[in-house]
Automatic annotation (TrEMBL):
Organism from which the protein derives: Lactuca saligna (Willowleaf lettuce)
Record-listed E.C. numbers: 2.7.1.100
Protein family membership: Belongs to the methylthioribose kinase family.
Taxonomic lineage: Eukaryota, Viridiplantae, Streptophyta, Embryophyta, Tracheophyta
Domain Aminoglycoside phosphotransferase as annotated: residue spans: 149-245
Protein name listed in UniProt: S-methyl-5-thioribose kinase
UniProt subunit comment: Homodimer.
Matching InterPro entries: Aminoglycoside_PTrfase (IPR002575), Kinase-like_dom_sf (IPR011009), Methylthioribose_kinase (IPR009212)
Root EC class: transferase
Length: 390
């Protein structure tokens, strides 16, 4: 990581930077002395500025050389912005409100499951060996294999720290003290998380977003946009599907903490569960239909000469999708556990100010997640998973 020539932007220096950068100034109609700057970053890592002039607006995101929510004691490569920019070019550009905030407010998004299923099916299928030749796939893997520090951050905060004593871990204390200790002493859980960590580190299945929680999705009723792919690399598909579904489960378990007078959130909880089910089921449909469409295409995982048989193709598909389902459930569980006893928590729970209520919600989520991680291979359908969560 290089610090040479680096400075953290503030309003004044950003103003000078924009003035001196014609490609940015032109987007603001060159009204260089007439624009407003506001820092809106609410994430854990970076600073985000919205710059508005009467003739246009831009969003500027600065990756600083350390973890923002911790400080300079946790250095982090600023070159992560390269991977974010490269992945954005492959995917698409942002707008709208952060989904997590909508879920806390109890807003339903009728097209969310369909849009996320579509996003994941497209980004995962077209970057996998179901579509690419092994030559194309290897060069794509190589392009992203330098995103080491961001991967190492995930390895630490998702797959390691929650299962050991770490200065970074926290939980709603003292209420969850014994629950956090139970995670650290759970041998079966540690066996399972090791398997998931090994998949995360070793399985270059597709270009994954790498941080696909509900804070990386921006929504309106009609539209859904995915942002913040700075963790993108070739990894297991289930890590993205699990991140999204796991964070919807967190939203579900937090709802009892957001009950207001006249709104028990029962209907909303049902909507979240339906959205989880629809996300997986629609993903399954879209992903396998892409596979069918491209079965004679360039993808080298299952060569057409060998798998040109309907029954065999069905068998292969079922096995692939069941393995992916179990991976997704395992990663969903890991992503839930880290948000309750690890370093970075979620606003879904953090915004519940009554700590007894908050810890009750968190404990239910944690118990569900532990069970999900251990028993994931016993589930055949998403409906079975939801029945257990309920
Ligand atoms: P971090 O990597 O620190 O999580 P994000 O890319 O998620 O940073 O950006 C932090 C916040 O900035 C987002 O949660 C969102 O509120 C806001 N933001 C980011 N990109 C945009 C955008 N294109 N338009 C509007 N707001 C944005
Ligand atoms: C120090 S952990 C910070 C977390 O925020 C990012 O959005 C990732 O989820 C990362 O794990
Ligand atoms: Mg973010
Ligand atoms: Mg973030
Ligand atoms: Mg980020």
């Amino acid at each position: 990581m290089t610090m040479e020539g680096f400075r953290v932007l503030d309003e004044k220096s950003l103003r000078e930077y924009i003035k001196a950068t014609p490609s940015l100034a032109s987007k603001l109609g060159n009204e260089v002395d007439n624009f407003k700057i506001k820092e809106v970053g609410d994430g854990n890592l970076n600073f985000v500025y919205i710059v508005i002039s009467p003739s246009g607006s831009i969003v500027i995101k600065q990756a600083i050389p350390y973890v923002r929510c911790i400080g300079e004691s946790w250095p982090m490569t600023k070159e992560r912005s390269y991977f974010e920019a490269t992945a954005l070019k492959r995917q698409h550009e942002p707008p709208h409100i952060i989904l997590r905030k909508g879920l806390i407010a109890g807003v339903e998004y009728p097209l969310l499951a369909e849009h996320m299923a579509e996003f994941m099916a497209n980004t995962l299928f077209y970057t996998s060996l179901l579509y690419l030749t092994t030559t194309q796939h290897k060069s794509a893997v190589a392009e992203f294999c330098g995103n080491v520090e961001l991967c190492r951050l995930t390895e630490q905060v998702v797959f390691s720290d929650p299962y050991k004593i770490s200065e970074f871990n926290r939980w709603t204390s003292p209420y969850l003290d014994t629950d956090a200790e139970a995670v650290r002493n759970d041998k079966i859980l540690k066996l399972e998380v090791a398997e998931l960590k090994s998949k995360f580190c070793e399985k270059t299945q597709a270009l994954i977003h790498g941080d696909l929680h509900t804070g990386s999705v921006m929504v309106t009723h009609e539209s859904t946009q995915v942002i913040d792919p700075e963790f993108a690399f070739y990894g297991p598909m289930g890590f993205d599907i699990g991140a999204f579904i796991g964070n919807l489960f967190l939203a579900y378990f937090s709802q009892d903490g957001h009950v207001e007078q006249g709104n028990d959130r029962k209907t909303y909880k049902t909507w979240i569960m339906d959205t989880i089910a629809d996300t997986w089921n629609l993903f399954y449909k879209k992903f396998t239909s892409l596979w069918d469409i491209h079965k004679e295409g360039p993808g080298e995982a299952y060569l057409h000469e060998i798998y040109n048989d309907l029954e065999l193709r069905e068998l292969v598909k079922q096995k692939y999708m069941m393995d992916l389902f179990h991976d997704s459930l395992g990663f969903a569980a890991a992503k839930m556990i880290r948000r309750i006893v690890g370093v970075a928590h979620v606003e879904d729970f953090e915004s519940i100010s009554d700590l007894v209520k908050r810890s009750d919600c968190e404990r239910r989520a944690l118990e569900f997640a532990k069970n999900l991680m251990k028993k994931r291979r016993n589930f055949n359908t998403i409906a079975d998973v939801i029945a257990v969560a309920k």
